[in-house]
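In pairs, describe these two lines:
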Amino acid sequence: MGGVAKVGGLGGEGAVVRGLVCACDEEEDSAYQNSDGGEKDAGLEEAAAEATGAIATAKGQLKVNVDPSFARLVLAPRLPEFLAKHPALSLEIIVRDRLGDLVGEGFDVAVRFGEPEAGRLIARKLLDTRIIACASPAYLARHRTPRHPRDLENHECLMFRDPTTGKPFDWEFHNGREIVDVKARGRLIFNDLSTKLLACVAGLGIAQSVEFGLEDYFARGELVQVLTDWAEERYPLYAYYLSRHLPPAKVRAFLDFAIGALAARPSA
């Protein structure tokens, strides 16, 4: 998946430090603290509580902006566990394929695939997943199995639209230090990963996708990986939030939940 999409922040100059997108001015703090009424006072209360050794309680409303695959595969199945652990917390979940403006839209935290851009957000890496190519047994029975990435130029490729650029993702394949760009073409372009994978299961072409979420397709025999020697490109999953200092208890609770849920997956 060449030309890996970067996730847009909120603009402004910043610096990437140890995987964090850190602001270089103090406007971020006031923008975050004032984005939800009493957030500033709540943050001060939590800091005071923790200074005395008390554990701050996650409470109030948490508004999250999450990637569709994360929402379907990780968040939804484990919501009962999260809500039971935090009975004073309510949750609003917005599922979409773009980050947007966390401050302007009132989000507390976001979860997105792709490399972060320097800006006014803290970005915490949650996961690295491989980029792989796959097809259905039915498709491979009708067409010659590709042995080299260049062979894909003679196959029907299922394209996926980059929400950042509006254009289909470029395809590239990594094997050690060698990177091969492929002029992938296809009659079908998708903006929803689940729909693209169902089309792949139906035998409509070869797909390039993050490995995250493909485990069940492989286990059921609906898809098989191709070009296994050319699957060394990685694609990250990040959580984003706004405060450079101690995040609110409700944000920390969600981050802990996300890390634990991902760690519990077989492919994590």
